[in-house]
Specification:
19 strands; seven-stranded antiparallel sheet; about 15% strand; 20 helices; alpha+beta
Length: about 575
């Protein structure tokens, strides 16, 4: 029987409840590693980096040191929210003219495995900077990476869903000429569920990062191996591109929705897509529509399409172009955009607005510590194994994040030397708009599903009173844009009623239903940790010590779990 039919969703999970600390990831070994760091006196940031390292070992098809990461940190003492943009930039020698000479342009983009889609891997620097800026200072980077080092040397049994995705992406590692792709395979094949996989090369990479810090990655042996494999495969990245890389401290963007303040990282990330959608949805009575009814899905999908239309145009590297974030997030502009929504008929080709006119494969994980601090963290290769190019002796694959550049010279997000592309990975935090108290650290990985998942999971809790696990369990929808003809497809997960599906088709939606089995990966894999049961009005009002309790959930679409103590 094909694996696509074998994956069943027939069990249930209770939310995790605890008081002293909690981690939630898509892989139990990673969750456990993060919790161990908390128990050793580390804080949420320390635990997040430990988790990132283990996930890069256990889910190399989704994440790793060859990719990028972004994080937000909530300081439990000051109640301030901080952001770190850990995304990499394009090589200085990579230009539109160069690609044009090679036959590539907006109508004929680079194939997903091309070496010139490798942007500088930002994860290693961001891990170091996360510890430096937000860590407890009680544990060294070496101590934080040690769980991943031990697992990489000793080996670990591959989990069920991880084995499926590993197998799905194995072809890019097996491509002719990909000399070191075999380093992420077992005897030339992807490991099966329960098979032990070791990665001593990655363990050595971790050790060099721990001993030498960022220089251990962006200069020396590892840097030379990265540049060599890229240039051997037709890319132009050089050692200076790596040596000059830096993470960027950023001020997170936010919007207020019914007493909650939702935080996202600003562009070049797509977090503003979720914030713009929430601003539009504020003009409707969401609860009255009912959960996952035709009206509800229609409204949310139309709001998401309008938000994406703006983000696809305006979201770019703010160091290179002006991005009108304040105007895009204004309530006045969102009210205008919301008035474009026709509840009886879908808009198949929504256009971006003009907000400046007077009155437009990944892992997510989170940790919350006993001091009330939280770290919301996303780490990614972009598509499965990225380009699939593996630097010699390093144990990781290089991302293909450059696929998110436009190759049109008129577009704000057009490719340029030393530029960050439109970026999909977006961690999120929620605080009280009135007090600044942490309410939630959460995220949903999965390309362009991420802002859609943020909106749906949040509304599941706030509007429909679901606990974190129920909010992740609930069936989701996903709108996908097809660039070739400018149309949208609406995918609906198994569990959404057929009657709602039929109504959505009648309103003009191009519907794919039901999406089941391993195809559910389309809807992302989320993690949620809340502080207090603010989503349950009765419980929140009757329990005086409610804010001391952490509630957590982990997505059933992945192998992972939440653990607390």
């Amino acid at each position: 029987m094909p694996w696509i039919e074998m994956l069943q969703f027939s069990s249930r999970r209770s939310p995790i409840v605890c008081t002293r600390g909690c981690t939630a990831t898509s892989q139990p070994l990673a969750t456990d590693a993060g919790l161990d760091i908390l128990k050793k006196g580390g804080n949420a940031a320390d635990a997040a980096v430990a988790t990132a390292a283990v996930l890069s070992l256990t889910e190399p098809f989704s994440t790793g040191l060859g990719g990028d990461c972004n994080c937000m940190f909530y300081d439990g003492i000051t109640k301030k929210v901080y952001g770190l943009n850990g995304s990499g930039r394009s090589p200085q020698a990579l230009t539109l003219d160069l690609l044009k000479k090679e036959g590539f342009d907006d109508t004929n983009p680079l194939p997903l495995y091309h070496a010139n889609l490798v942007t500088v891997p930002g994860a290693a620097a961001a891990w170091c900077d996360t510890i430096r800026l937000f860590g407890s200072k009680k544990l060294s980077l070496g101590e934080i990476l040690q769980p991943a080092i031990e697992l990489a040397e000793r080996g670990f049994p591959v989990a069920e869903i991880a084995a499926f995705h590993w197998n799905s992406g194995a072809t890019v590692l097996q491509r002719p000429g990909n000399q070191h792709g075999k380093d992420l395979l077992l005897q030339g094949r992807s490991p099966k569920c329960g098979q032990i996989f070791k990665n001593p090369l990655l363990a050595q990479t971790f050790k060099e990062l721990a001993q030498f810090g960022k220089k251990g990655f962006y200069e020396g042996r590892i840097a030379r191996a990265i540049v060599e494999v890229i240039q051997q495969n037709g890319g132009v990245m050089n050692l200076d591109d790596l040596k000059e890389h830096t993470s960027t401290e950023v001020t997170p963007s936010f919007t207020d929705y019914k007493g909650l303040r939702i935080w996202e990282l600003p562009p070049n990330g797509q977090g503003i897509t979720a914030l713009m959608a929430l601003n539009m949805l504020e003009n409707f009575n969401i609860r009255e529509l009912g959960h996952n009814t035709a009206d509800y899905i229609h409204l949310l999908s139309e709001a998401m399409k309008l938000s994406f239309a703006d983000c696809f145009w305006f979201c770019a590297d703010p160091a290179k172009v002006k991005v009108p974030v304040e105007e895009l997030l204004s309530k006045h502009y969102s009210k205008q955009r919301s008035e474009l929504i026709n509840m009886q008929r879908t808009d198949s080709r929504p256009l971006h607005g003009n907000p400046c006119e007077d009155g437009s494969d990944t892992v997510y994980f989170t940790a919350v510590d006993a001091g009330g601090s939280a770290c919301s963290f996303t780490n990614s290769n972009y598509s499965n194994f990225g380009t699939g190019l593996v630097p010699e002796g390093c144990g990781f694959a290089l991302q293909n994040r450059g696929a998110n550049f436009s190759l049109s010279s008129e577009h704000p997000n057009c490719l340029a030397p030393g530029k960050r592309p439109y970026h999909t990975i977006i961690p999120a935090l929620v605080t009280s708009a009135a007090t600044g108290q942490l309410l939630c650290s959460y995220g949903v990985m999965g390309g362009f599903m991420q802002p859609q998942g943020h909106v749906q999971v949040l509304l599941n809790m706030l509007e429909f009173g679901m606990n974190p696990q129920e909010a992740l369990d609930a069936s989701r929808f996903c709108v996908n844009y097809k660039k070739s003809d400018g149309t949208w497809k609406l995918s609906l997960e198994e569990g959404i009623p057929q009657s709602a599906t039929q109504e959505l088709i009648a309103r003009g939606h191009n519907v794919h239903w039901p999406v089941s089995g391993h195809d559910r990966s389309l809807f992302g894999r989320g993690q949620v940790i809340t502080r207090g049961a603010w989503w349950d009005l009765q419980l929140a009002l009757t329990a005086e010590d409610d804010q001391e309790v952490l509630w957590a959930g982990s997505d059933p679409r992945a192998d992972g779990c939440a653990i607390g103590f």
